[in-house]
Amino acid sequence: MDLQHPLVRRVLNEALQEDLGEGDVTTDTIVPGNTPKRKARITANSEGILAGVSIAREVFRLLSPEVKFASTCHDGTVFSANMPILEITAPPAPILKGERLALNFLQRLSGIATLTHAFAQRASRYGVKILDTRKTAPGLRIFEKYAVKVGGGYNHRFDLSGGILIKENHIRAVGSVDIAIERAQRNPSPYSRIEVEVATLEEVQQVSVLPIDIIMLDNFTLEDMRKAIPIVRQTSRHMLIEVSGGVTLENLDDISKLGPDFISVGKLTHSAPCIDMSLTML
């Protein structure tokens, strides 16, 4: 992750300010500023895929220029319970002040990477790529989409400027899918690919003959996917197929076997359980 990215810097600084408030009254009251440096260790309490260790380091760096780190772990490391993740040497105050925020990032991002890895590994057996969505925590998208990539997934649009995706409400707004596609083709956007979301087999028939690049099968049953995917493949050799909605680890194999190009999974970011980690002063 580019720690110098303006969005990353802004979020880190705002997150620190949010947590510190007017100051850490506990630490500032009972820990003298001249207290000798101490070591602390972040440890995983369960297994998973590590994401966010560079961000955790940066939290402590922002609090103290004296901080030093010792770790063999990097983002993408497969860790087990009781495994040391990061060792910190610094005055006690910045360790105490940065503890919660560093753990929050590590636990949340590692949870996303771990869940993504489970989906991506399974789907890759069938040549299918797992995509994330824009269902991210407000303000944390750059971190959460990074964690998806660490876990082996791929990023869909980062934001609304990232491509043309015509959904049901766009079509309702302009009157028809034909009008929406025609206007999209006239748009001077540098993004040339046009994606259209469909919800029924009738819409698949209609849209698969239109000049678009990607068709999204939204909330289709497995039975309807079996019918829809061959329709698209027989109509266009170039149109890519994305499946979205209701995808779980339990039905992932059945969906992947049908041969879509992409499967997008909102729960990678909106429902990934955090990985339990803790920091202990040594």
- Strand portion: 15-25%
The total of helices stands at 11
Radius of gyration from CA coordinates: 23 Å
Instruction: Supply the CATH superfamily name of the largest domain.
Output: Aldolase class I
The portion of residues assigned to helices is 40-55%
How many domains, in number, for the residues? 2
| Class from secondary-structure proportions | alpha/beta
Poorly predicted ranges:
none
Q: How would you describe what is shown here?
A:
This protein has 282 residues and is of the alpha/beta class. It has two domains: 6-115 and 273-281, Quinolinate phosphoribosyl transferase, N-terminal domain (Aldehyde Oxidoreductase, domain 3); 120-270, TIM Barrel. 43% of the residues lie in helices and 18% in strands. Helix 1 crosses helix 4 (92-124), helix 3 runs antiparallel to helix 4 and helix 4 (92-124) crosses helix 5. The model has no long low-confidence stretch (mean pLDDT 95).
Write a short abstract of this structure:
Helix 3 (53-63) runs antiparallel to helix 4 and helix 4 packs across helix 5. The relative contact order is 0.15.
Highlighted features:
4-stranded antiparallel β-sheet; elongated; 18% strand; 282 residues; 11 helices; 43% helix; 2 domains; TIM Barrel; 6-stranded parallel β-sheet; Aldehyde Oxidoreductase, domain 3; alpha/beta
What is the fold's blueprint, element by element?
Blueprint: H1 6-20, H2 25-30, E1 38-44, E2 48-49, H3 53-63, E3 68-70, E4 78-79, E5 84-90, H4 92-124, E6 129-131, H5 141-150, E7 164-166, H6 168-174, H7 177-186, E8 194-198, H8 201-207, E9 214-218, H9 222-235, E10 240-244, H10 252-256, E11 262-264, H11 267-270, E12 277-281
Helix pairs in contact: 1-4, 3-4, 4-5
